[in-house]
Design goal:
With 293 residues, this protein is mainly beta. It is built from one helix and 26 strands.
Amino acid sequence: LSLHDALPIYDSQGMLWIGTNGGGLNRFDRVSNQWQHFMHDEQNPNSISHDIVRVVFQDRQKRMWLATEGGGLNQFDPATNRFTSFRHNPNDYTSISSDELRCIYQDSQDDLWIGTYGSGLNKFNPSTGRFTHFRHDPQDSNTICNDYIRTVHQDQHGFLWIGTQGRGIQKWNKDTREFEIIPILINVEGQDTMVRSQNSAVLALTELKNGNFLISSFTDGIHFYNENSKLYEEYNLAGNEQPSGVAEIFEDRSGNLWITGLNKIIKYNPITFNYEEIESWKSAENIAAETYF
């Protein structure tokens, strides 16, 4: 592995892909037990555009996308080992709004939504290569509330949920093009009711199969949100302490929740209350292979 601080995913072929904090992209073939490393090469325009890879994402068309920190959006072709980069061009309003990226999401119409660090949200049409920008406008209340975007999700009804850094969650109706702010609420000592957090960075936004949401912020832990009743409360992991810095929550087909924190992975079943801490990625790989594929 080229560097730590990795963000792993499995693709549809069972390959393990890991984006690193300065070591480029790593790919692990579990059949041959071999690693392959991809790093930026200034002499090669088809190399990865930056060695800090925030997100590795495979869309429904089995295309591999990378969100980099400083190199924009990359598409990787495993057949040729070539990268195509989409960079910000100040002279082209259809280019991506920034090269500092934080998330990638594919909606039901196959558009990609790219969250940036300080330059708003981008909708990308892979067929045309054009980006549409959504930026905060302090003079217009019906714009995105914050230009620091950490996560995006489309719910069962087609609404787009946007997790920001500092302004909670915003829900967007693509038909009416109207925004609704859903604030992050936290418990404060000495207060009888939950109060609105002023600086929470929403890292994970997961819609459960029953339509409820689990929301994770970097400083305020995991919270449960019921869209119908507007119930918002701290999520109880059967009395166990919540991990810090939860970056991802995933519900598998058996109803287990997989929670990745700064220093641990947790597998939790909300029906049986079974709570298991997984200490290493190797252990997680052995367990997940049966669960996901």
